[in-house]
Amino acid sequence: MLAWTIYLSFAGALAEALLPKGKAALARWLALTVAVAGLALAVAGFAAGMGHGRVTIVDAAWVPSMGIHFLLAADGISLVLVLLTGLAAVAGVLFSWNVEMRTNEFFAFYLALIGGVYGVFLSFDLFLLFVFYEIAIVPKYFLIAIWGSTRREYGAMKLALYSFVGSAMVLIGLLAAYATSGSHSTGLIALGHAGLPVSFQMWVFPLVFTGFAILAGMWPFHTWAPTGHVAAPTAASMLLAGVVMKLGAYGCLRVAISLFPRGLDPWGFSFAGIGSWRDVFAVLAVVGIVYGALVALAQTDFKFVIGYSSVSHMGFVLLGLVTLNQIGVTGAVLQMFSHGVIAGLLFAIVGRIVYDRTHTRQLAELEAMHLSKRLPFAAWAFVIAGMASMGLPGFSGFVAELQVLVGAWMARPWWAMAAGVGIVVGVAYTWRALQKAFFSDALPSAHVLEYEHGHGFAPITWPEVAGVSLLVTASLVVGLYPKILLDAIEPAVKALLAGGGQ
Amino acid sequence: MNYFDLFRMTLPETVLELAALIVLVVDLGFLRKAALQVRVATAALLGVCGCGVALFALLVQMPGGLSAPGGDLLLTADGSSAVAQTGILALTVLTLLLLIDTTFTRHVGEYVAVVLMSATGGLLIAAAQDLLVIFVGLELLSLGLYILTAFAKSSGKSAEAALKYYLFGGMSAAFLLFGFSYLYGISGSTNLHRILLAAYGWNAYHTATLLYVALVMIAAGLGFKVAAVPFHLWAPDTYEGAPIPSAAFIASVSKLASFALLIAIGTAALHAFDDHSNVARVSIGILSGSEPVYFGFARSWSLILTVLAAASMVLGNLAALAQTSVRRLLAYSAIAHGGYILLGLAYFSYSSRSAEAVLYYTLSYGLTTIGAFGVVGVVERATGSDRLDAFLGLHKRSPLLAAVLLVLFLSLAGIPPLVGFWAKFNLFAAVLGVSTGAVPLALVALAVAMSAVSLYYYLQVLKRAYVMPAVNEAPITVHPVTLGVLLVIAAMVLVLGCLPALLQGWIAGFYPVV
After folding, report:
1. Which residue, A37, A133, A183, B467, shows the most beta carbons closer than 10 Å to its own?
2. Cβ contact (<8 Å) for B452 and A157?
3. Residue ranges covered by each domain of chain B
């Protein structure tokens, strides 16, 4: 059943591409239908797949001579991320309701991207996973380059090349693993059982992990993220931050860590306290957390604040992954979900609800607009999203980051302490952005008030309300009752860490 | 050998030559007064029919190939040559179909006839097992290509391109012949198999230097044909100046024939001892003996090809970054793709695995590049230029053409699920299948990294077509046949990419089951 999320999205993309031009309304409704159907399938698949371990969905020989299978399966981790993709896809369509230029092409690229993302999360054949992973690159480029804003061609090309370089590293690792294992199969399970030599895993693990982590925004390869996010149209930045960065993190977990676990072993010597690839990547993750947060604190462009906050939050995911303990990795997966929802919400508010009415993203200019009075919906939505982003209890971010920190503490206490600094700075930049953009102290003069009265903003539309409600609800539900996802994630993580990805 | 066998073996070649003559007779004899459109359509159609009959004739070829009186093989009918010959005919058909709305010449009969004769040369090369046949085939192909390049008589660029091509080609033919003469001197035979057997033998051991000189000369001659760095200098100018169908023909059919020859050399080198087990024992005794200086044939050949491959991949991709003419961009990209293929030939496997992968790559590349040149040709006719800026706003001017361009260029960049990606994966997996040492792995890593670079320049064209605002929004009209051919090519690139086992299985079907 879950396989239909993929087929449906690609069919939708094809249908959109073939739609006659000028039928914008039809294109929108078609995209929404496809996205909602995808979400419905994801929810149904989630409910049906709970507690069943890994379930094979489709298994067909694809290239028999090379042992490549079209193998789709889902375990708890996949289910959660497919659910996230469904949510983000629907929200993204709702927030692109105002795309008027080349609407059908926009949704064609959009749905193709969604299809690729679903595919990655459901693939259990390394080769197939890679194919879907690359399919997701091209639509991103066009979405940003055609419909984007600030320096869109630069941002789009940078994003495409970073992604492609990352995937080239993964491809080298894939080819090497395929040749070395001699198992004549590219199935994740078969490769995991191939018993790859430790010396091989030692060099291929960092290669593949870095290749995927580029897309997860790992410092110092994160620079595509802020420029790409800022340049992208709202729906694309929601997807970029919401699900595409998760592709990278998911690849790190599903491919790098589960196929080459011995690559994380100690080197046998240590340099400045770093004695394994695990330490290296943990340090990079922690640097990403703190650096992203500090840079976000210094931004003058509202969207850049969110862009850098993504780098910081994705640092938690990577840190959680390299803790290699049950609670840390579980937290990382939960953080993927949580950040996907919250970052989508933040980008929607900044890039769509606010920007489309004020036509500026400069905090200094927004300060003079008294948005809390003129756009109360946006202000309160941002307050909620900001609280979720800071990791206040009651929202999904709290549970996720807490687990990551506990896991990090169990692994190396100083990782947790350093990451804690990131959380504190996170509160600061969110607060600063909130205060500057919405709740500025500056009292408007009578003249300004009169002007503002005469030039009211366009009213909030139903797709905006629907999108915000959807994402806020998702974050609240998971925050208040995390068991709903944890029950799916925990057994899958346990199996994955036990080896073989069973 | 008797003449009937010879006739039966060369039936496809004979059919093509006959078709060439028929085209000439019909065009010059009956259609002198007809409109150009009619003449082009008739000539192209006759050419296509000729290729179709030749494809059929391939089926009734001698099963074991054709041997000279001494028992040495002259023309082979093994798996690689059969695949290459079928591919050559199929790609020639596509080239001829793209000719349909041509206006660069009034001498269409001659043009089609020369195309068919060049294809004949290609068929000969693909099956040749004897130095003399190889050389005759290469010259037949090359002479045809020089003429095809120069065919746009009113264009100065075309003449310049042809002259450059001819000068480089003549020189490389001289190198090749020089190398062949050394080989004959070492082995006393013109048969590929005998030469390679001798190259491992006692005699060659004493004349190793001579052998190396011969190998370098031959590599220079064949490197020219496949546009490998540093013998690539003709490629950008020729691709830029030649009429579009000629450029497409050079980039696809000529490449396929030359790579088939390299496959034949590689196969012969690895299978030299197959029927000579007693000789093998003696020769291997020498190889593993006390003289580490002597590398024999295979390793030095592999070394030369590796150097050519690495240089082509790096230089082709980096030079393509700086191009503003799409034809030159395609030329440098062809050099880069040639580099990947040479890597597959440098690490050649005893089984047919490498040969299959190389043929898969060459076929799919030929298919894609013909389509790419077809799109460039249409755009060039509409805008009068092949600069990057000529592609501005193509998605508005002709959405279908832009979609074809998108599919073909992404395939060239190696994005799944298009056929170019599979070709690369298959080829690199074959290289690593031969040896998992650090050197092939490093070379594959270089190739993958370079193909990441290539995405940039392919996107430069696609960016013009899809992203940047149009200067001129007038729709481009495409001849229905051209559009049909381009759509079929794009569809094949997509379908073969989604179901790679189709082409792979088809190729594998030509090889005996081990």
Report:
1. A133
2. no
3. 3-508
